[in-house]
């Protein structure tokens, strides 16, 4: 009988406790692998979500808040950009793309982005990947709306459906914001449904700016005590505000930043009334901020892996009291103390190896659940890849820890007295 056969039979006799320890090792190794895989995938996903905008202008408190609110729709921007300042900004440089946006309304908790038709022709939700309509077209008239892919899927809205907007975000409405109310006087018609982009834009609705301005002009008239149906002719300059502007400079290479980007960025930053952000740079800064937390998660997963090695140690020490007679019989059959030592050490190593192999499956399940949650909850598509080098290192580390955990029970087996443990039972 080979040594491996002896080890496997010994493990099968204690299949329940062995299975639990293998599962614990698998969960620890799988969690560590998943965290390592998600680290780089998350940064790539956020960089993907910035689209092809070179600059983003808003009045948020910081460039990072500007990017999170204007492109990832984390919160509605707080302060608007006046129409006169918008016109001044438009004429300050021969922009290749100038797309104003107004964010603040919502539909069933999904953000509504009021913008211009150039949003669908010049702006790309993902760099190098223009918009594709699964159904219908872009808005062409007032009170037409285009749905992001996730909005259409989760709400069940179809082409031609009628809907009304909520002034304010759904979150603020649930929180009791007295300014959040439904604009039941004006219904929007669904004229287009976008194909999935794997970006936060999938969880947004898009309408024209003039319709948004009319909704807020209606609120202005109500505050003045006047009740009327608002038309474009009723709009005043104070109604024509936006919350952000997506800018792109002329560039020969659509995939790289033009030389004039730095100079224009520095020029615009001198205006203290606006906040200017380079979206890709802010994403890099965001991940630089969270990198310390990322290391903490890796450390916690590694600590869990060490605890699983302790579980192997305790499990095998407890089993040694029941296996002394088995060890004594092996000694009588000719097994040397050194062979007994290596048999027990091999047993613990096999547990670690099995746990590491099962950990790859656990990692796959965790990655699938994480990607689906991020896509459905935030519209962020991540594509984590299980790095072969990381998988090998984690498997080797897990097996090594299991082997180290087996040294103490192996030493106990090595020192097991034969005569004492061969006495008749009872």
Task: Give a verbal description of the structure.
With 426 residues, the chain is α+β, with helices and mostly antiparallel strands. It contains 15 helices and twelve strands. The protein has helices at 3-13, 15-48, 63-70, 83-90, 118-121, 149-155, 170-174, 209-223, 260-269, 279-320, 324-332, 337-378, 388-405, 407-414, 418-421; strands spanning 55-58, 97-107, 110-115, 133-136, 144-147, 162-163, 166-167, 181-182, 188-194, 205-208, 244-248, 275-277. Strand 2 and strand 3 (110-115) form a beta hairpin. Mean pLDDT is 84; it is low at 172-178.
Structural class: alpha+beta
The profile of the biggest β sheet is:
12 strands, mixed
What's the structural domain tally?
Answer: 2
The percent of residues in helical segments reads: 40-55%
Radius of gyration in whole Å, from Cα? 31 Å
Shape: elongated
Q: Helical segment tally? A: 15
Approximately how much beta-strand content do the residues carry? 5-15%
From the N-terminal CA to the C-terminal CA, the straight-line distance is 30 Å
Question: What's the number of extended β-strand segments?
Answer: 12
Poorly predicted segments: 172-178
Order of helices and strands: HHEHHEEHEEHEEHEEEHEHEHHHHHH
Mean pLDDT: 84
């Amino acid at each position: 009988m080979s040594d491996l056969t002896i080890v496997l039979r010994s493990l099968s006799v204690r299949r329940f406790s062995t299975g639990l320890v293998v599962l614990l090792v698998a969960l620890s190794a799988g969690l560590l692998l998943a965290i390592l895989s998600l680290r780089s995938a998350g940064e790539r996903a956020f960089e993907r979500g910035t689209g092809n905008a070179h600059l983003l202008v808003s009045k948020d408190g910081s460039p990072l808040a500007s990017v999170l609110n204007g492109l990832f729709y984390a919160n509605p921007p707080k302060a608007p950009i006046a129409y006169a300042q918008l016109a001044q900004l438009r004429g300050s440089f021969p922009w290749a793309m100038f797309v104003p946006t107004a964010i603040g309304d919502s539909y069933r908790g999904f953000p509504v982005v009021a913008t211009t038709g150039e949003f669908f022709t010049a702006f790309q939700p993902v760099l190098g990947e223009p918009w594709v309509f699964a159904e219908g077209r872009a808005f062409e008239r007032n009170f037409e709306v285009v749905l992001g892919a996730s909005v259409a899927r989760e709400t069940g809205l179809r082409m031609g459906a009628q809907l009304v907007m909520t002034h304010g975000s759904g979150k603020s409405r649930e929180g009791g914001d007295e300014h959040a109310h439904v604009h039941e006087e004006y219904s929007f018609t669904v004229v287009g449904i976008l194909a999935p982009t794997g970006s936060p834009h999938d969880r947004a609705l898009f309408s024209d700016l003039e319709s948004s301005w009319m909704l807020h002009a209606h609120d202005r008239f109500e505050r003045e005590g006047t009740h009327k149906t608002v038309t474009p002719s009723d709009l005043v300059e104070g109604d024509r505000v936006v919350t952000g502007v997506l800018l792109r400079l002329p560039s020969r290479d659509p995939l790289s930043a033009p030389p004039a980007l730095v100079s224009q960025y520095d020029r615009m930053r001198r205006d203290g009334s606006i906040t200017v952000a380079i979206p890709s740079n802010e994403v890099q800064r965001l991940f630089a901020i969270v990198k310390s937390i990322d290391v903490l998660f890796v450390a916690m997963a590694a600590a869990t892996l060490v605890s699983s090695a302790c579980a192997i140690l305790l499990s095998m020490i407890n089993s040694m009291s029941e296996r002394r007679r088995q060890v004594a019989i092996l000694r009588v059959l000719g097994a040397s103390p050194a062979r007994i030592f290596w048999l027990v050490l091999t047993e613990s190593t096999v547990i670690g190896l099995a746990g590491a192999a099962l950990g790859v499956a656990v990692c796959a399940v965790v990655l699938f659940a994480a990607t689906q949650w991020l896509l459905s909850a935030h519209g962020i598509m991540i594509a984590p890849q299980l790095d072969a080098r990381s998988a090998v290192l984690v498997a080797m580390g897990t097996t090594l820890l299991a082997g180290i955990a087996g040294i103490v029970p192996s030493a106990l087996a090595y020192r097991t007295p034969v005569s004492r443990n061969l006495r008749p039972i009872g």
